[in-house]
Design goal:
The structure holds 2 protein chains of 2 kinds. Chain A is an all-alpha fold. Chain A contains 20 helices and no strands. Chain A has 2 domains: 6-105 and 115-181, no CATH class; 188-463, no CATH class. In chain B, the strands form 3 sheets. Chain B has a 6-stranded parallel beta sheet with strand order 2-1-3-5-7-10, sandwiched between helices. A two-stranded parallel ribbon of chain B has the order 4-6. Classes of the chains: A mainly alpha, B alpha/beta.
Chain lengths: 476, 321
């Protein structure tokens, strides 16, 4: 079930929320678990078994890890990680690895006959795999006690707001919340609903509208000139941001309505002054996951190598991060580009600090934001392209073949541009706290607030794209 | 406990006020948009209203953007000595055409109807693509087709703004006469394509319900004794043989003696990029050539004296390929 579907907003969400508050506290987890199972089974029902296997492995592994000592403890951890990752490897990476092995074999004229698997990738597999991994690792590290209640642990992995596209939660933040009793709170419910509406606005009004133009040019990139492709890339930057942050807002909002607090996943990432800051503001739950469980251990492991150790850790982390996004070379290159940018940030820290002192702040900060955003756009070509060849053709066209802009159905550009302008304006106000932190959404006047809510609903109905399109990050 | 109960009452009260405000706003904005929608005098939205409510032309063309850009009114008017209106609409497919034709038939009986078919007409999904029909939901005939847009369309139509979703810019352009001018619905395309064609055009599975719906329309047209012409106009691509859609159309046509079918797929006369704006649209030169060609074929059909036992199927162009 998609968050942007009629069934979710008008049926599933209100029914689950009402039932949640009507039921006595001790039965709520059962209802939430059943609802989450139903939510997941709306995609491909049989794949719930994959989730169940992962849950069983990690539930018992965590208990075993907690009880064991020394090498046995580590062995249970390794078994748990490997078994959890095997599912991911089979469904997500088998064909990619197989395809590359076939290519190598063909290059050397070897016989290679392992067939490709015709499997549909379970929705959100990378997300709940990482969430399960964080649980066993935290238990291993002693930061979290294993959850004795199988149902509650299952809910930790399956909680519907964050099941298919995160935020990738940590057990310390989530597990205790399932044991707590959440009473109906006016503030939680209204703030949650407001957050959801803002998420719907970003997804339905901006992301899905921009997608019309982006898909038109990227799906026929051979027939478009550099100008149209450049606009396509720019719109894709806003599409992917509004799509994913919109999803996160709906997830956080729907959880908050029931009194749960999920971790913030986005913090106005396009105002970042460098790529390091960008990754602290973009998909925060994933960045921090990689930081905690891959980058930091690697830095410790390579501590004797000095700066080179950090560089290597960065490149490995971002290579894996790229691969996490998708099984393809384009995603690996996307990751490597970002790894290289963070290496540059790391190595040029002193130089940039000096430069910022000698340059007026608004020029230095402004240029930094523009350059970071431009770099992100540059790398997004790889993120959006289906193949290496497509990405290279798009770069070549953007830099050598300017021409008349393709408008298509002009409303895609007109509406996208207008609402992106609104979004950027609102985020500028939030980022810099302009006019005494002026906000229509959180205005002191109740009339202004109410009018803003009404206006937002009107905008969604009048300008939203109701084609029930998927969220981009579901495929990961 | 008292606090939670108060919180709940407070929420219900304010949420209720918000919902009531939204309902009022929805009515107001919806009615304003409806007023300005039907006030338009130009543009694609106006052409749809004109087709449903006003046209009395003897010859009507229906279809998608390929209808809009391929059928030159002047050619048909001069050659066939008939009044002509192009009722095509961008990005719309067969169910849209069937709905509009059905609405037109409620009002009057044209002499000739031409239905332009896309090469994937019976396989492409139209779910969510019938929103251009929503402003006419009050028309009972049109309303019957809205279920193909989405299962929950009737619920969504409780909102009065919803039918005008994504139309504001077009409504403004139509009311202020900023929309591009057309000639009886025809819009010429200038320039020619500058890329290679799609190498092969493969059909996906045919939707049996769509065939059934189309068959019902053809039956209705037969009852009203309307000369009906089905056309797959030229497209810059090669088609796999046999084209399963064409086979289905031929089966349908053979049931009705008032229906002819002209298929320009793989027609060598149009295998030149000079005739095309892009892979699927003829430019002005191509549209004139095609319109002349089709008009001549329609004249030949009119002049054929012997009554037919079954429909006409012109596969000449294709056979020559």
């Amino acid at each position: 079930m998609l968050f942007n579907s009629f069934n979710f907003f008008f049926l599933f969400f209100p029914i689950v929320t009402i039932l949640y508050y009507l039921l006595p506290g001790k039965y709520r987890w059962i209802m939430l678990l059943a609802a989450s199972c139903f939510f997941y089974m709306c995609f491909v029902p049989i794949y719930i078994l994959i989730l169940l296997i992962t849950i069983l492995i990690d539930y018992f592994a965590a208990i075993a890890i907690h009880r064991a000592q020394g090498k046995t403890k580590k062995m249970f951890l390794v078994v748990s990680i490997v078994s959890t990752c095997v599912v991911l490897l089979i469904f997500k990476y088998f064909n990619f690895v197989n395809d590359n092995l076939r290519f190598v074999a063909n290059s050397f004229h070897w016989n290679y006959s392992i067939p490709m698997l015709k499997l549909l990738l379970p929705i959100g597999l990378s997300f709940h795999t990482f969430q399960s991994l964080s649980y066993v690792i935290e238990v291993y590290r002693g930061n979290q006690k294993p959850e004795p209640h199988f149902g509650i642990y299952s809910l930790y992995v399956m909680f519907y707001p964050q099941l298919v596209a995160g935020p990738i939660e940590r057990p310390q933040n989530m597990l205790h919340q399932f044991h707590e009793h959440h009473n109906f709170s006016y503030d939680n419910v209204t703030q949650g609903l407001k957050r959801m509406m803002w998420g719907f606005f970003k997804k339905i009004v901006i992301a899905d509208r921009a997608a019309i133009y982006v898909n038109a040019v990227f799906n026929n990139y051979q027939h478009h000139n550099g100008t149209s492709l450049a606009l396509g890339v720019l719109l894709f930057a806003f599409q992917v941001y509004c799509d994913f942050s919109g999803y996160s807002d709906i997830a956080l909002g729907s959880a908050q309505v029931m009194g749960f607090t999920l971790m913030t996943n986005f913090n106005r990432p396009y105002f970042s002054k460098n790529l390091t800051e960008f990754w602290r503001r973009w998909h925060i739950s994933l960045s921090s996951w990689f930081n905690d469980y891959l980058f930091s251990p690697l830095v410790v492991a390579y501590r004797d190598w000095g700066k080179f150790g950090v560089v290597l850790a960065l490149m490995i982390t971002f290579c894996v991060s790229g691969l996490w996004h998708g099984a393809g070379w384009t995603f690996i290159v996307f990751g490597l580009f970002h790894g290289a940018a963070l290496v540059y940030d790391f190595l040029s820290k002193k130089f940039r600090k000096k430069l910022s002192k000698n340059t007026p702040a608004f020029i230095y900060n402004g240029l930094s934001i523009i350059l970071s955003f431009a770099f992100l756009n540059f790398t997004l070509v790889f993120f959006r392209s289906g193949s290496f060849a497509q990405a290279l053709t798009i770069y070549q066209k953007i830099f050598t073949q300017p021409g008349k802009l393709y408008w298509g159905d002009y409303k895609a550009i007109v509406y996208s541009a207008f609402f992106i302008f609104i979004l950027v304006t609102i985020e500028i106000f939030e980022e810099y706290g302009l006019f005494n932190n002026f906000s229509l959404y959180r205005n002191n006047s109740w009339l202004v607030r109410r009018l803003t809510y009404c206006l937002l609903v009107v905008v969604i109905i009048l300008f939203g794209v109701f084609d029930g399109s998927q969220f981009i990050y579901f495929q990961f | 406990m008292h606090k939670y109960s108060n919180d709940f009452k407070r929420f219900l009260k304010r949420f209720g006020i918000l919902v009531i405000s939204l309902v009022i706003l929805d009515f107001l904005i919806g009615d304003i948009l409806q007023h300005y929608y039907f006030k338009q005098k130009r543009g694609p939205l106006y052409r749809t209203t004109y087709a449903i409510d006003s046209t009395k032309a003897d010859m009507l063309v229906f279809g998608s953007s390929r209808a809009i850009h391929h059928y030159v009114p002047e050619v048909f008017e001069n050659k066939l000595h008939t009044s002509f209106n192009n009722c095509g609409r961008d990005a719309c497919n067969l169910i849209y055409s069937i709905a509009i034709i059905s609405a037109v038939l409620d009002r009057f009986t044209p002499k000739n109807i031409v239905i332009e078919l896309n090469p994937n007409e019976f396989s492409v999904s139209e779910e969510g693509k019938l929103s251009p029909l929503l402003p006419y939901h009050d028309n009972p005939t049109i309303h019957g087709f809205l279920k193909y847009n989405s299962k929950l369309e009737n619920v969504k139509l409780l909102s009065r703004m919803y039918p005008y979703n994504s139309m504001l810019v077009h409504i403004i352009a139509g009311d202020l006469s900023l929309a591009p001018a057309d000639d009886n619905g025809y819009m010429a395309l200038s320039g020619h394509m500058d890329y290679y064609p799609i190498p092969d055009y493969k059909q996906t599975a045919i939707n049996a319900d769509r065939i059934k719906l189309f068959d019902q329309l053809l039956s209705k047209l037969k009852q009203r004794n309307i000369q009906t012409t089905l056309v797959i106009s030229p497209i810059y691509a090669t088609f796999s043989e046999p084209d399963i859609q064409v086979l289905e159309i031929k089966k349908l046509v053979s049931k009705y003696d008032n229906v002819s079918f002209f298929n320009y797929e793989n027609d060598p006369d149009y295998a030149h990029y000079d005739f095309f704006k892009d892979g699927v649209h003829l430019n002005q030169i191509g549209a004139n050539k095609f319109s002349e060609d089709l008009a001549n074929k329609l004249i030949s059909r009119q002049q054929s004296v012997a009554p037919k036992s079954s429909g006409n199927i012109d596969g000449k162009a294709r056979d020559r390929f």
